[in-house]
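Consider the following assembly input.
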Amino acid sequence: MRQSILFTKTIKESPKDEKSVNARLLVRAGFVDKLMAGVYSFLPLGFLVLKKIENIIREEMNSIGGQEILMPTLQPRANWMTTGRWEKMDDLFKVKDASRKDFALGATHEEVIVPLVKKFVSSYNDLPLYVYQIQNKFRMELRAKSGLLRGKEFMMKDLYSFHLTEKDLDGYYEKVKAAYIKIFKRVGIWKKTHLTFASGGSFSKYSQEFQTISDGGEDIIFVCKNCNQAINREIFDEVKICPNCRRKDFNEEKAIEVGNIFKLMNKYSKPFDLFVLDEKGRKKEVVMGTYGIGLGRIMGTVVEVCHDEKGIIWPEEIAPFHFHLIQAGQGSKTEKIARRIYDDLQKSGFAVLYDDRKGKSLGEKLVDADLIGVPVRVLLSDRTLNANSAEVKLRSKKETELIRLPALNKFLVSRKLYV
RNA sequence: CGGGGCGUAGUGUAGCGGUAGCACGAGUCUUUUGGGAAGAUUUAGCCCGAGUUCGAAUCUCGGCGCCCCGACCA
């Protein structure tokens, strides 16, 4: 993409109504725009990142047998009455139509997926079944905060699994756990992410969460110094011992909950009477699991974890572009060669942000590049051109390297980091 | 939902009952261009509504909005 036609612009000062690191950097760099507290638009750069995250999640969900669907946001009150959550769920958005009929805006989709599955699943042969969607959720957060980390409207991947037995659910639960670890590795936050025991809410005594250590987080976890297992503060007092290695030595950390996995058992299959017939024709209750990841929250978490005083440092797999090509100087030869590098890289299958803006000093372009945080910067100026070279720099490193132009494309493309 | 703080231009501020001003930013043009350059020029504001007053950015009341702490958070 040519930066001269990118309609968003970087902002020099941090917006005064944003305190969290992720919101300040993402707004300044032009990835997102705040419409109101807890509700953000994703601008071209931010939408690219969101789609990368989405695709990683989609790939990993597909790899464990997930079938993708899309369910409605607008949902009938009756389904929520069936589960009792119309009254019980404090943060459920409720709306009325012109005839005063009630609807819920989907905060989660058990009330839709269970009746849906009931229409198609009737035999034990139909199980297990794994269905997921990636879609906006609405929650009436009374206190939206921390930029993208806690919003009223946010994109979420929600996976639901349906099983004949708890044992089968347990097996799939472990598969999801492994898939989640892959996702957190690919988006670049796994090193700071811990599998964490937490309260099970109303379903079971405990659940498991993935918590990423960050000052921007709102949870407190205790990380086992021996094995990296963590325990959420909400249950620490009753546990006080690592459930994994039985030791009692912990570090206390602030953390962001980036995903959770949950055994629902019959919590929702029961109210909707979701059952199958087994091989002997007997009714068997279906057991379920639910597994969520917030996409915007992942994006915000990545920024919280991957930034420096100059801006964002995107992990390679979710960066909006592979390369940020910067053209400095208005010489027609410089422009011609920059254009050729841009075209060649794109032909090689890479996404390039090409800073072809006129009238900006190199300093301004470099400051913008640091803020936006594309992993690899390629600088072509009159000066580098004199040496028949371009300067290559990783956003995460200080060193720069001059690469001779004839070898440039090969050098950049040969980096195995970008696929 | 409880508590606290705060609303004057995009940002930061001045004004303290009597003509809304400054700086930065942003736009245009020119000269520039190796880490946010310079000149000229332009743009843009009292959160909203009632009340008090001859007169309200300023005082009173109500609303709305934002931030922070807590509670909540399949």
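Residues 160 and 318 of chain A are 25 Å apart (CA to CA). Ask yourself how this observation constrains the way the partners meet.
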